[in-house]
Fold this sequence. Notes:
Elements: H1 6-21, E1 29-34, H2 45-57, E2 61-69, E3 72-79, H3 82-88, H4 103-115, E4 120-124, H5 130-137, E5 141-146, H6 149-162, E6 167-170, E7 186-190, H7 194-209, E8 219-224, H8 241-246, E9 249-257, E10 269-276
Parallel strand pairs: 4-5, 4-7, 5-6, 7-8
Antiparallel strand pairs: 1-3, 2-3, 8-10, 9-10
Helix pairs in contact: 2-5, 2-6, 4-5
Amino acid sequence: MTIDHSIPEAIALLKSQFVRGYKTRRSLLTEILPRYYSKSLPIANDVLDSLHRFAIANPIYFSSHDAEISEISCRIYEGDINNYWLSSKKHDTSYQPFYPTWMLSAFTLALEAKLLGFDQLIDVGSGDGRIAYCASLLGMESYGIEIDDELVELQDAVSHSTGVNYNVIRADATRFDYGSLDLSKPIFFISGLPEMGEMLANSVIQKVLSVEKMKHNAGFNFMGSHVMKSLTRDRTGWGWGNIIASFGLKLIGTISLPTLWTTDQILDTAYVYTRAL
């Protein structure tokens, strides 16, 4: 079973309508959340309430206001990630600085993982923890693995404030012992675009597949790209084709969703779901 694609399509449409009528400085993080359930974007009110609680508790957001967008009552959140972005860049094995996806996107990604049959979600390079947070909302056992101390403290603070608990691990994902988690049906979200995330993906996949309990049932989600910046890059599998082939992974789904870096672009980020065979 996979997600009803009307949900990611509705989120993409909401984003496109939003950017047409709303101007913001490029240095700011700006995203929107519906205030209530609607037929055009069917996310339950209790889930939306929890997503709003995440934004309210998260210090990267400093203001919000309400607006009607595409006939949906929404709240617009504005924030600044510069300090956390700079902090995340200082680590040698940080292959992508902190760039959050939208909360609506994070929830949709976790929902798709659950519908695909995974019981645990591990976000590798979890930033402020939004994907792991959403997985916890869905009743999944969830983990956020993050190398940066400031982002780990941020995750702990948001989790404590909202009462939504998941496992926050301060670790270098390229050296972490994934067997220590004793996982049965996990999916690992690899935080890194094709241009910069291959070393992280290679290391994590090798370590996960070396664990007997996971080598035939682990899933991996990659942040793909619809447009390759270099003609020398792998242009298959949204930039991940060679990685998928080299580890013998099976492509089981893909959805495109807004992220911070696609707010002012027509094409959003492709998220690629795979499973070990």
